[in-house]
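Input set for joint prediction.
Command: fold jointly, output tokens.
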Amino acid sequence: MADILDRARTQVLERGVGLDESDILEVLTIPDEDLTAALQLAHEVRMRWCGPEVEVEGIVSLKTGGCPEDCHFCSQSGLFTSPVRAVWLDIPQLVEAAKQTAATGATEFCIVAAVRGPDARLMKQMRAGVAAIREAVDIQVAASLGMLTQEQVDELAEMGVHRYNHNLETCRSYFPNVVSTHSWEERWETLTMVRESGMEVCCGGIIGLGESVEQRAEFAAQLASLAPHEVPLNFLNPRPGTPLENQPVLAPRDALRAIAAFRLAMPKTIIRYAGGREITLGDLGTRDGLLGGVNAVIVGNYLTTLGRPATADLELLKELSMPVKALSATL
Amino acid sequence: MTAIWCDRCGVARAEGDHTACAAARELEPPRYCPDCRRRMKVQVLPTGWSASCVEHGTLSPR
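tokens >
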């Protein structure tokens, strides 16, 4: 077995201390014959420091398309020739989406908007939407609305938004290759304000944007230094019309290496399977990830693409004896 | 009525091979109206989707 796994067993499993960047890189480049052992160790770490429960979440796009930013992976940028048109959900549709999510047993419902940051219209829609959901559905509401001002952070916290998602997407050194309309540091600033407000910080990114494996290790280490409550792990699903439309899909084994490495970097963090798992890992990949360090899933559809049926994931959790985290455990 | 346009890429179904489009559509809603190739307004919800063409109405999962 690779030396790195022996070191990780002592440091991460026994003491709960995440790996540093150079050790993360070793896991990301672990030989094929040691990958199963790496995933098994990552699973033991997750079970020891997070427990068997799986946090289930649904997401919905409140405002789709027409975004002024140029995130090269995103089909919702108004700067690319993507077929995605701009459209808003109204409040009854938003409540219906929350009900659909709650019906799956999910405890989290994240409202997402494709914007640089929210304007007055979006904040007004959020206020009305969060109030309507809290009135009609027993579920925690999270939000992902881009970069925030301090006033907007305070307003969202006051509305009762309990977790805010703002992905760094990739490491600091590669970010300018992926986004040119804003900086990694601007994103970090929003995350700092969110943390100070008392809202939980949800911050992850996308693996397979063309970053090197060293930059993938850099990203995991930077996320670990942020110490977010949750890390959503996406794998690039190349979208038509975007600058990354011809980027190859990540090799399944590299995706699994990333799952194990991110868990060993962040032993106590919620690591959520997010977009791209179906196209990168296929149906069996969900099982491999849940037995390799992942302890949360987005069920059902994503923002502009479709996911596995929620029932398929829930049946798998039952088969694996991994209970869905109850709402009472998240409050 | 037989669809004239590919609802994923917007090219005429009679032109080229749309096998990859059909495979991709397993995990994507349609984006182009199959009758007139207009880009549709698509809303994706956790357990469904709808796609509306201003001329030909709304599609939803079969």
